[in-house]
Amino acid sequence: MRWGAVFALLVLISEGSLSAQKSAYYRRIFVDAEYYLLYEEYRDALPLYQEIYKAYPTNNNIAYRIGLCYLNIPNEKQKSLPYFEKAITSITDNYREGYFTENNAPKEVYLYYGRALRILGQFDKAQKAFESYQNRLKPNELSELRIVRKELESLSYAREMIAKPKKHAITPVGRNISTRFPEVNPVSDSSGNTLVYTSVQRFYNAILISNRGNEFWNNPLNLNPQLYADGQIRTVGITSNGNILLLSRNDNDIYNLYYSTYNKETNSWTPISKFPKEINTSRSWQTFGSLSKNGDTLYFSSNREGGFGGFDIWMSVKTSSGWSAPINLGKNVNSQFDEIAPFLTENGKRLFFSSNGHRTIGGFDIFYSDYENKAWGIPQNIGYPLNTTDDDTFFFPIKNGAEGYYSKNTESNSGDEDIYHVVLDIQPNR
Question: Which of 127, 162, 197 is the last residue of a domain?
């Protein structure tokens, strides 16, 4: 063999070895990115996918994954559009989820592209994207067809509701509460002058409490040391007298409801206690809870068996022998999709909750249902601009629902989400 041929062969072997090393390196990154995506850790997944995309810029599956990340990160949704637009140029019906060697995108990219456009107010383009997705579905893909029909209905309703906005008065709580961290899930006693909320900080969730002074909210106190609260825990409810605080915590990928009681003598909160097995089951998530004024009735959201859709709203009553078996609130309140974050007014006559199954203007909207003739009535959409074309999932009522607090992301926020006080423009709760 000539030396030139030998040299060429050695070069090919070297290049093949380097190519294999490169492939192995990016495969490991891909596995980590897919893990974060599975657990909805989009901020962690994004830079990993971006590193892969830099090395493989023609991989439209990675473009699709980057689009998904941006779509689920506040204030970054606009950035998802070029990646989705790239991904829809090579869609395959034989998409292989989780494969590093997959270079094409699934037809679902049209669905997420449409959602991004809907959130950004580009309704005509969103409609075309949803119709493209619908046209690619097969007659037996019933669940997917139901979802895209709901998206198209929401676009029509959004146009209608935005043309007739409500006169909700929405004011940021501002100073001493708003920080560079997201502040979420605000709950309050009936006075509205005590606020308990979750600050999603870098390494943990802080449960904070603040009281309103003459002009501003006081510096918040961190309750975690009193509650012995750790892990992925969030505020989800409080009684109108402010004496029982409800929290939801992720326990090994199962969300359970907890509570803490305020001790007036020691001016402190008790360590959290877990609701019993009648409420928390090992096979389902319990994500939000609301207690009646005297604390003997619990309304909560759960994806347990026996419901109408994914997450439903359930009710349990506290008796002398413990909490009763939960009762589903029924088809007026619950739909074939999801209902979450139920909050009862002080007088027990109005229930606020979030749903993506009733008539919404996109994603989750906030609704209310009135208790009349021993039944919960047809839910009413709280209206635009409190409800937006993005997900709106947490409104805590005070003063029998005339006012309330909610957390929401806007383009001007210092953090991902801030807390707002709202005076509602809706039918009074009688």
Answer: 162
pLDDT digits (tens, 9 = 90+) for 71-125: 999 889 999 999 999 999 999 999 999 999 999 999 999 999 999 999 999 999 9
- Inside any domain, residue 315: yes
Distance CA 69, CA 37 (A): 8
CA distance 151 to 137: 15
261-284 pLDDT, tens digit per residue, is 999 889 999 999 999 999 999 899
Q: pTM for the full model?
A: 0.91
Torsion, Cα 389 407 77 160, to 10 degrees, reads: 10
Amino acid symbol at 49: Y
Tell me which residue range forms the domain holding 365: 171-423
Using DSSP's 3-state secondary structure scheme, residue 45 falls into: helix
Residue 54 belongs to some domain of the structure:
yes
Do residues 417 and 301 share a domain? yes
Other Cβ atoms less than 10 A from the Cβ of 414: the count is: 12
Distances in Å between the Cα of 405 and the Cα atoms of 205, 254, 259 are 19, 27, 20
